[in-house]
Amino acid sequence: MALDGSIQANSVRAYFSRIASRYDLANHLLSGGIDVLWRLRAAKIVQQWDPSSILDLATGSGDLARTLQRACPKALLVGADFCEPMLQVARAKKLPNLVVADALELPFAAHSFEVVTVAFGLRNMASWTGALAEMHRVLTPGGHLLILDFGMPNPPILGLYRFYLHNVLPLIATLLTGERSAYDYLADSIETFPHGAAMCERLQESSYINPTYAPLLGGIAALYTATRP
Which of 122, 152, 173, 196 lies 20 to 30 A from 214 at CA? Predict the structure, then answer.
């Protein structure tokens, strides 16, 4: 989707605002519930880092934040998202410390968090480079970044997945949410989002070290980690 940053941000905010009330239902059904397992795996990685503070960016309906809260009960957990209707869903899950904030202009001091996580959100940000720079700024030296997002699998799964992504998924999502445009956008954004080695290169270009890539379900999703020097 060829949009400038401000137009893209407003469009994405509008998409998520319209589907907020049915976002969780659509996610779980469209993934067959495997997105829950992906978040559990992400939380286990964060738990091993034993952080005292975590910022969950693009926290949305709070699914990852709630999983992190259970895995790291002693950590200060802050969830931030630029879409207020999505945060209303997160508040209903009794999550504290929820902040309306744009990932490109975070209202936090430098070196505020030992871990920053973002699940299925970096892809939707108007500037990936700008968002990675802000995450870098708020991380403590030696702090960790974790990204969970969609990718594109390798052949022979690729062709079938593309058909599902552009035809089946928007149809089912329309029935669930009444919003086809949001899921047409989802499919297009997944196609253009860097994954695998390309994402690791972006992390290094953004001054992170030790990037790792773990494909999930053949590359349909992926977990990335990196460290702020």
Answer: 173
